[in-house]
Amino acid sequence: MIRSNTALAILIVLILILFWIYLSHKTRIISIYLRPLAIFIIVSVAIAGGGIVSAEVTPNPAPLNNITSLPSATSGDPTPANPPLLTAVAQPSNLTDFVDDQQALLKLGKALFWDMQLGSDGVQSCASCHFHAGTDNRSKNQISPGLLASLKDITFQVGGGANYQLTAADFPFHKLADPNDRTSTVISDTNDVASSQGVFYSVLKNTVPGQAVDLATSEPDPDGFQVNGINVRRVAPRNTPTVINAIFNKLQFWDGRAKETFNGVNIKGAADLSAKVYKATKPKQLTAVSVSLNNSSIASLVTGPLLSEFETSANGRTLPEVGAKFLRKKGQKIKSLRPLGKQLVHQQDSVLGNDSRSPRTGLKTASYDQLIRKAFKKEWWKSKSIIQVDSNGTPTILAKNDDGNESEEGQTLPANQFSLRDWNFSLFSGLAMQKYISTLVSDKTPFDKFQAGNINALTVQEKSGLTVFVNNAANGGGNCNTCHTIPEFTRASVRRTTGVASTDSSDPLINNPTNGFFGNYGVRPASDDPGAGNTTTSLFKAPALRNIGLTSPYMHNGGMATLEQVVDFYNRGRGDDGGSGAGVLNLTDAKKADLVAFLRNGLTDRRVLLEQAPFDHPQLFIPNGHPGNQSSVTSSGNTNGTPAATDQLVEIPAVGRNGVTTPKPNFLE
Prior knowledge:
Domain Cytochrome c: 460-603
Main location: other
Oligomer: single chain
InterPro entries: Cyt_c-like_dom, Cyt_c-like_dom_sf, Cytochrome_c_Peroxidase/MauG, Di-haem_cyt_c_peroxidsae
Region (Disordered): 620-644
Keywords: Heme, Iron, Membrane, Metal-binding, Oxidoreductase, Peroxidase, Transmembrane, Transmembrane helix
């Protein structure tokens, strides 16, 4: 490095001397001889510059040459001791059977993901729980009782009630007298979960075309999300995982219930033989067809939250009804919902900027119809026929609209009748949001630069932490890479599980370590939450760790607030579930600090931290609990049944491709 700098300095001095000579003696002869000499020097400078670059780059940095914390080899990962750089997951192999325009698909997906009109209340979007590094940093009204326990528990133990403001003192949920000794006195323990608030409990009457808020009846919350008889927003029963890098997961959700094969309708994949979408084989002929798209667990996932009475939906809503809300037109009486009609879109948004109406809300594109028509092939949305759902739930095809129009637009449809576009909304929203989420890849962390050869990308402490991460306990490490395998930092990735038997089976126990699922791992007793297993063998997916410094709280129950608490849990040999635990790691305080530094800083992509493209986004208003506390709230004055609490909304401003200058605070900061 020193020699390269010296050589460069000498060359620069030579250039300056020759330039001075040229200015002093502007003769043709000198110019003739100086020209090739100057070219030689310039080339030499370039080579020297390249020498400096190469002097800073060392292929295969030493800590990645000596990995002893290894999972078993698979056909997708035959040499886990020599991990590759992070590479993109393939798209569905038959995507072009459905999609005409990938850019239009991306626009549709980003708009739908952030659109508050998607929720039954006209407030909840998918992004409402995934707005901060792909997850959620709210801390008020973020507790859910033990709803998934074998004996359902609706008692709030943390804070004593819903709408509680969490504090650092509440964590970890399994608190020991000595955090380094799992056999020490248990100070406190709870089966509560720190998660994300969603909708108020209500029962759907129907969706209304062109209306953001669904018609629904507010009823007493059956799971205890009330304060003095007033409903508060419900909180999901598992901690919210990040959507950033979720495209690398073979299966989605903590329990893997969103399958890798998208059937166009729901989360169940190829196991659901009854899942059908409709295809226009002729203008007046619709045919029910089964579809199958591989590499599409994100598309499967999307269909779940849109109907969840915890996340975005009134109880009883269907995806065709969501489609009717966005897509159907009743003549001139009702206008379609404008994409992002309640939110500002930054003029420099990396995907939607050219379509922004700023300073007005929404996109220039007046309806989701237009985006769907541009993105998808006609046979999935263009038809004159109507699909009527009978009282027993059976669909019947009605041939209508012989007025010469190309589709059913202009007709007034009863609540139980749907256009082809309405019916296939599950297909459209799943593939579109998957396309958007597939762009949320954070592959520019300091670790990635280090792995690519820049040995200065990590600090000395972070390098030491990486060594702890990749080595097993016998070699002084933390055995982390076994489950959180590099470069995806999860053993549950598409790459690692290539060649593993299909996980679309209805047998939950197929979700095993081969697929990155681990049973009885020590976080909570299996009776609290079976995950993908049962009440004696709980199974949960090993989550990916990129940007983990931004995504607190941790674990499927959100029961740890800091990375230090997570490292203490593993270092003492797990066992918070009351089981025998595992081998104690015996990491020194210095090694634990090094490991935390690597996780917190070495795995944080600065683009995620500063919300730079592709992590920029439209404006969003998120519920942040309710004015008051766990003992008292005020009613909003709603007239549709059981009183519901007044919302306390917080604005997440629109951000363009260049991001922000000051990072947003993390959980409990």
